[in-house]
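F.,

This is the one I mentioned.
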């Protein structure tokens, strides 16, 4: 194990730098809300604060539409063709055209819903300005930076702009009447991140926009389709958990689950960073040497799973004091929820390795989608059975069982296809 770590450091300096950049970014994503959250809750009050977050949650569905599957498929394309300037321009241009087209389609649907449904129309401007976040994510080519393994730019841009956002919040948001200004600041920050990133692409990477051929647009749509549907399925069943819980329980019970899940998400952040950094690296490695890619995966599997198991055991044992410290005594009911979902980071880590890192990089997108879709259907069935009887505990059980099904399905597929089965002497 120690020899792998030393060899990893020596041979994967870029990968380590990317992982470090994403870790800093993840830390900033925790830090900035931590600074502004107590202030905004008090200034806006429960109603307006809830409105801002509900609008943001509604907008997230349109983010899924415009992201399509490019954060993985385009990342892979850029990684493979990183030394081909002409091809990079072609990929960048076709993806941008598709994302802008999906944005305008989504914007039309969004505005029609907001103006025609009473729940939205009463605060239509809040929803419409919240939609600026979608335009910002369309402009932000995170997939390009990941494919080029230059994640430091993502970190610099995000941290810089979000620092300005934090300052603006304290300077301009003074009362409940400033709720519209807050969503404008939120949307503007996303757009600014996107615009700065495009400037960096032009100046430092010499990327040029060209009119893409229809053939290339079709190719990008085809490449990203199964990842898009899979991502949409994942978003549907992960978002639906809290929604279904809210159908059968009051907001307090929903709060117990959501609060415990926030801690779980924080635990999972470290492994998500590793996944983002490793995916483009493996894409290129599979193209150059399948043997090297398999060797890397096996060593990474041993190291990351060992760390995840240790963290899971510690957090399970210390569940009550962790909840008391992070959430407070009013959230004691979150302890049992947390003890159930504390296993999710480990389970999702395994599904990520066997699914995203292996299945997608080897080309089994259809099979990946089928596993995700099946798990999503199972999750909905389990939720409607367990949640009415056990509320937040039922939701937690449904989520864990669903993720276990995903992981088991992907592991079984990789094992049956013998993807990792090579000459032991040449791999170990």
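My design for it:
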């Amino acid at each position: 194990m120690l020899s792998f770590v030393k060899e990893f450091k020596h041979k994967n300096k870029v990968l380590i730098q990317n992982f470090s950049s994403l870790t800093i970014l993840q830390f900033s994503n925790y830090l900035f809300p931590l600074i502004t959250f107590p202030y905004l809750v008090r200034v806006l009050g429960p109603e307006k604060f809830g409105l801002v977050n509900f609008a943001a949650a509604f907008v997230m569905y349109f983010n899924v539409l415009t992201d399509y599957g490019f954060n993985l498929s385009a990342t892979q394309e850029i990684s493979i063709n990183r030394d081909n300037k002409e091809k990079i321009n072609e990929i960048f241009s076709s993806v941008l055209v598709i994302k802008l087209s999906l944005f305008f389609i989504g914007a039309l649907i969004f505005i029609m819903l907001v103006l025609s449904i009473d729940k939205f129309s009463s605060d239509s401007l809040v929803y419409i300005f919240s939609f600026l976040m979608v335009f910002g994510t369309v402009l932000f080519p995170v997939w390009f930076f990941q494919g080029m393994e230059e994640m430091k730019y993502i970190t610099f841009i995000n941290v810089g702009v979000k620092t300005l956002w934090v300052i603006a919040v304290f300077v301009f948001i003074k009362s409940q009447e400033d709720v519209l200004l807050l969503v404008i600041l939120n949307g503007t920050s996303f757009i600014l991140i996107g615009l700065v990133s495009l400037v960096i692409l032009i100046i430092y990477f010499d990327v040029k926009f060209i009119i893409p051929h229809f053939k290339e647009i079709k190719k990008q749509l085809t490449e990203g389709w199964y990842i898009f549907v899979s991502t949409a399925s994942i978003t549907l069943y992960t978002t639906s958990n809290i929604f279904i819980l809210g159908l059968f329980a009051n907001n307090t019970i929903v709060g117990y689950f959501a609060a415990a899940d926030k801690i779980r998400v924080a635990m999972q952040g470290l492994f998500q960073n590793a996944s983002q950094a490793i995916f483009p690296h493996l894409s290129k490695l599979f193209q150059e040497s399948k043997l090297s890619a398999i060797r890397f995966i096996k060593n990474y599997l041993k190291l990351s799973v060992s760390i995840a198991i240790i963290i899971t055991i510690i957090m399970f044992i210390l569940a009550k004091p962790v909840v008391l410290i992070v959430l407070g005594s009013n959230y004691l009911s979150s302890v049992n929820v947390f003890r159930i979902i504390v296993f999710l980071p480990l389970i999702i880590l395994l599904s990520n390795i066997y699914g995203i890192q292996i299945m997608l990089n080897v080309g089994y997108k259809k099979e990946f989608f089928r596993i995700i879709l099946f798990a999503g259907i199972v999750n909905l069935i389990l939720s409607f059975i367990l949640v009415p009887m056990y509320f937040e505990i039922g939701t937690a059980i449904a989520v864990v069982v669903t993720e276990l099904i995903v992981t088991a399905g992907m592991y079984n597929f990789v094992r049956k296809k013998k993807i990792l089965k090579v000459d032991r002497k040449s791999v170990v």
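Residues 103 and 319 are 42 Å apart (CA to CA).

Talk soon.
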